[in-house]
Amino acid sequence: MSRLEILNLAGLRHDNRRPYELRSLALSLSPSPTADGSAQVTQGLTTVQASVFGPREPRQRAAAAHDKASVVVEVGVVPWAQGQGGSRSRGDKRLLEIGAAIRQTFEPVILTHLYPRSEITVQVQVLAADGGILPTAINAVTLALIDAGISMLDYVTAVSVGLHLKQAMLDLSAPEESDLPTLVVAALPESGRVTLAQMETRLHVDRFEEMLRLGVAACSVLKEEMEAAVKQRTTRVVERMAISAKGAAKDD
Amino acid sequence: MFTIARIPPAPTFERGSSPEAPVRMDAMDVDGDDLGEGTSLGARRTIVSPGEVITSSKEYMRGHGTYVEDDNVVSAVAGTLERVNKLISVKALQSRYTPEVGDLVIGRIVEVGAQRWRVEANARQDAVLMLSSVNLPGGVQRRKVESDALKMREFLAEGDLLVAEVQAFFQDGAMSLHTRSLKYGKLRNGLLLELPPRLVRRLKSHFYHLPPPAGPVGVDVILGLNGYVWVSLGTRQDDREGGEGFDAEGVYRNDNDEIDPESRQAIIDVANVIKAFAAHGVPLADTLIAEGYQWLRDQALVPGVPLAAADGERMVRELALSE
Amino acid sequence: MPREIEPPSVQKEFLESALAEGKRLDGRLPLEQRKFTLTFGAELGSVECRLGKTAVLAQVTATIVKPRDDRPYEGFLQITSEISPMASSVFEAGRASEDEVMITRLLEKSIRRTEAVDREALCIVAGEKVWHLRLTLHFLSVAGNLLDCASLAAMAALRHFRKPELEVLGDETIVHSPDERAPVPLAIHHTPLCLTFAYFEGLQPILDPSHIEEILAAGTMTITLNAQRELCVLSKAGGSPLSVDDVMDVVRVGVERVRENVKTIEEALENDKKSRVVEVL
């Protein structure tokens, strides 16, 4: 069993990145025309697609809260996501946990009091997994919610941070994730506040602070990319609508 | 302290190769008259996204799509900025249909309850149609009898489609509909299209009749503001409300009329035209649909067959964007 | 199944205004944890922890099994939790609610993934026989902050437990009963303990929320620390966002608290040892 070198002598990671380098980011809005809002985010080799339905009538009448919307999150991993013909080694509990984390992250960020007695359903599908499923999923859900026109306080962006012998690293891939202590941070970039933080391995408290600040800074960088994509698409659609409106107005 | 490097991503769906500067105008500097006062020139509109500070809330009031934090008006959705005097609001690019009183909507019955029907109308909550808000067969002015409440399924059962108008709102935002006009009621003889609600604007009339040569009797189109569009067999002017041929007893008939093949093709062609426009994000209007259908006939494409993507693009380009 | 009824808004306002003045409903300071007591059962590895009115019973049992093929030197540590309507009428027997799943997963991460128990020391005969430890938690009473109580009980139980002494003679393994030879404690690297903080919008976080505080909180954050100032698990899922400085303040408070708690556990273990006859005279 050969072990991957986390950082080689030149200071490069196993996929030739520098420690603070994020993986390549590809964003796509509205890939699913049937959903109210959808987005697909690819970071490196990890691809996650999120679809948002709602606000709409709750499926169970009893679940409706009288003064705000209820948020339901379902997470699924396609069998071929991990490669090698689909081994579902994670199991359902892990997906339940990711779903609960996403729901609790977005519930205070969505302005739910604007949609009483309705339900917002978020469906997350992991299409390819190479580390960083939770952060990529959170980024995809943010874009999907914006695409659906649901009011939110701010973007929620997330990134994973790892530590290798006092050197912090951003946006870990799967082999790095399994070896290093990993911290997943999601933040509201405009205010710089942390909304989700999850870490599962032993880490000294001082190192932790450094990683947390680094993660929040990376979240701001991600937001810039996402905002640019959203604005570009919005501009295009608005132009199209305006031109057609002009054309229709001329006929009248 | 440190810099975070990024590999510029390969051109994705969103980031085209043209280096057009994204409209990143800081909304802070759109004060005074710089904000287009409701002009329809889309390119001049300011685009904002969630979390973006628009302006100080000491001078402006916040409207839809914004919230106030620390004396600032902040956008809550991605869309265009709109200002009316001192009111700032952001119109989201896409959102669920938000009803207003007087809107015409098409809906489907999902539940028959006590003296009311629940109607699914592509909104945040199901709409309610009260028994007292429908026309009972036999004339508009007929008195409601107790037995009507027990015969509700004879009028409208689960799965029926109807066109109605929004009368009022309930406390929690659900619509209350009414069909108290002869032009509203149960829908027959046609097919339903589900489109994004923003493509249907509030217009003078939502009932369009495409005269022959669109089929032997023409094709009717009803544009519901909630995004549902009904394309059906054309009715003659007489048979519509107020005409002599109007069938007062048959408003709740469940069967379809006899439709000949040419009419069916016409209906399908019109539906395809509408779908093509919707696929390219073009808002619908009656003249546009008529032009589209005419274009389709001129192109002599095989009738009844769905529009190929290339043809759809061509049509959109020629008709909608060239003006 | 009765659902938990949301407390009325007046209660929420009262709680928040009291907290703004630095007072909690049960008279504690914001960062004060309830006193906890450990009661050891007759068997080794059986502990009941009471944190205020919350009670969790932890029990450790051991059996000998065959190890995994790809890890022939490691033993097993399995953590299971039993939740029943006895703890609270909200819970259903047998069905795991979302909260319960979270608690179990956090405990697994705190204890198993941080390697609190040395699994290689559980090996008897490499490739053939290893110890399989089963840590079962019974939630007896819910009065807020099940997780902290469970983690105290779990670590106390693991440190209390003694596995029987073994002798390997050739192919045979003789398991000595506690009467013949003194049982052996487990090899525990460190004692990770969970601390749960609840926070409300715009107010400072509070430690060890009671039941009502938990329901009304805008969010909770759980950190697991050990006495060596190491952060083992951090879980802040949603809830109102915190600035980095707030998070670090909470972590620092936690470090001190965990040290105290570890000392308390060790004292309790000492007291129990004195009163129990473990060695064979």
Automatic annotation (TrEMBL), chain A:
Gene3D superfamilies: GHMP Kinase, N-terminal domain. Component of the RNA exosome complex. Specifically part of the catalytically inactive RNA exosome core complex (Exo-9) which may associate with the catalytic subunits RRP6 and DIS3 in cytoplasmic- and nuclear-specific RNA exosome complex forms. Exo-9 is formed by a hexameric base ring of RNase PH domain-containing subunits and a cap ring consisting of CSL4, RRP4 and RRP40. Pfam families: RNase_PH, RNase_PH_C. Residues 21-150, 154-217 form the Exoribonuclease phosphorolytic domain. This is Ribosomal RNA-processing protein 41. The keyword Cytoplasm applies. Keywords: Cytoplasm, Exosome. GO terms for cellular component: cytoplasmic exosome (RNase complex); nuclear exosome (RNase complex); nucleolus. Its main location: cytoplasm. One of its GO terms (biological process) is rRNA catabolic process. It is found in: Cytoplasm; Nucleus, Nucleolus. It comes from the Eukaryota. One of its GO terms (molecular function) is RNA binding. Belongs to the RNase PH family. The keyword Iron does not apply.
UniProtKB/TrEMBL annotation, chain B:
Keywords: Cytoplasm, Exosome, Nucleus, Phosphoprotein, RNA-binding, rRNA processing. Belongs to the RRP4 family. InterPro entries: Exosome_cplx_N_dom, Exosome_RNA_bind1/RRP40/RRP4, KH_dom_type_1, KH_dom_type_1_sf, NA-bd_OB-fold, S1_RRP4. GO terms for biological process: CUT catabolic process; exonucleolytic trimming to generate mature 3'-end of 5.8S rRNA from tricistronic rRNA transcript (SSU-rRNA, 5.8S rRNA, LSU-rRNA); nuclear mRNA surveillance; nuclear polyadenylation-dependent rRNA catabolic process; poly(A)-dependent snoRNA 3'-end processing; TRAMP-dependent tRNA surveillance pathway; U4 snRNA 3'-end processing. Residues 96-167 form the RRP4 S1 domain. The keyword Repeat does not apply. It comes from the Eukaryota. Pfam families: ECR1_N, KH_6, S1_RRP4. Residues 47-84 form the Exosome complex component N-terminal domain. Residues 190-235 form the K Homology domain. Coiled coil: none annotated. It is found in: Cytoplasm; Nucleus, Nucleolus. It comes from Apiotrichum porosum. GO terms for cellular component: cytoplasmic exosome (RNase complex); nuclear exosome (RNase complex); nucleolus. One of its GO terms (molecular function) is RNA binding. Component of the RNA exosome core complex (Exo-9), composed of EXOSC1, EXOSC2, EXOSC3, EXOSC4, EXOSC5, EXOSC6, EXOSC7, EXOSC8 and EXOSC9; within the complex interacts with EXOSC4 and EXOSC7. The catalytically inactive RNA exosome core complex (Exo-9) associates with the catalytic subunit EXOSC10/RRP6. Exo-9 may associate with DIS3 to form the nucleolar exosome complex, or DIS3L to form the cytoplasmic exosome complex. Exo-9 is formed by a hexameric base ring consisting of the heterodimers EXOSC4-EXOSC9, EXOSC5-EXOSC8 and EXOSC6-EXOSC7, and a cap ring consisting of EXOSC1, EXOSC2 and EXOSC3. This is Exosome complex component RRP4. Its main location: cytoplasm. Residues 1-24 are annotated as: Disordered.
From TrEMBL, chain C:
GO terms for cellular component: cytoplasmic exosome (RNase complex); nuclear exosome (RNase complex); nucleolus. It comes from Apiotrichum porosum. It is found in: Cytoplasm; Nucleus, Nucleolus. Keywords: Cytoplasm, Exosome, Nucleus, RNA-binding, rRNA processing. Coiled coil: none annotated. GO terms for molecular function: mRNA 3'-UTR AU-rich region binding. Residues 32-164, 191-256 form the Exoribonuclease phosphorolytic domain. GO terms for biological process: exonucleolytic trimming to generate mature 3'-end of 5.8S rRNA from tricistronic rRNA transcript (SSU-rRNA, 5.8S rRNA, LSU-rRNA); nuclear mRNA surveillance; nuclear polyadenylation-dependent rRNA catabolic process; rRNA catabolic process; TRAMP-dependent tRNA surveillance pathway; U1 snRNA 3'-end processing; U4 snRNA 3'-end processing; U5 snRNA 3'-end processing. It comes from the Eukaryota. Belongs to the RNase PH family. The lineage of its organism: Eukaryota, Fungi, Dikarya, Basidiomycota, Agaricomycotina. This is Exosome complex component RRP45. Transmembrane segments: none annotated. CDD domains: RNase_PH_RRP45.
